[in-house]
Amino acid sequence: MNKIYDSPRAALDGLLRDGMTIMSGGFGLVGNPESLIPEIKASGVRDLTVISNNAGADGFGLWHLLESRQIRKMISSYIGENKLFEQQYLSGELELELNPQGTLAERIRAGGAGIPAFFTPSGVGTLVADGKPQEEFEGKAYVRETWLRADLAIIKAWRADATGNLQFRKTARNFNPVMATAATVTVVEAEELVETGAIDPDCVHTPGIYVHRIVQSTINEKRIEFRTVRERP
Fold it and tell me: Name one Pfam family in it (predicted).
């Protein structure tokens, strides 16, 4: 089955609605679905719950949906480098469910694996554990966390074939693969579209069974979050 669409707008056609939950891949400025986010903004959908490690940075990524006030709630692990995210949360405009980063990744993975809940020591004794069941295993306290699932996952891949097999590069292979498994519909933007079979089976990071729609990305900025340089000797 050919899952390739002509444009980011076409790839999202019929999928967006007010109040839905969206998973958005990326880690810092790497692996963000840069071509799909502007189309969500242009659609005008509102009251979104967005699950993402962070919300982009000033002027980049999910920041654009925060600027347009289309996001009602963020489920994230990092607020830094995004003044708008911080301001909206502190002012009460934006609801935030903050997670330890590993817990967030595991909640998403659990959603894709069909595991409703699990126990972790991360967050015990902090605000993260408030109101959550806790148990003791081998003399150590653990807090119960629940899975995360979404109506839609928007993913950024390096390479994709027509059946949806995906390959990621380096740090972009972070939240993208697990999010692709944990949504009702997964839409992928890929830097390169290749023929079926061109990706070595050992290099397929996400099998095509999890992918519903694919589009070639139209925006591929390679931003550096913190540029650190030193003088040559």
Answer: CoA_trans
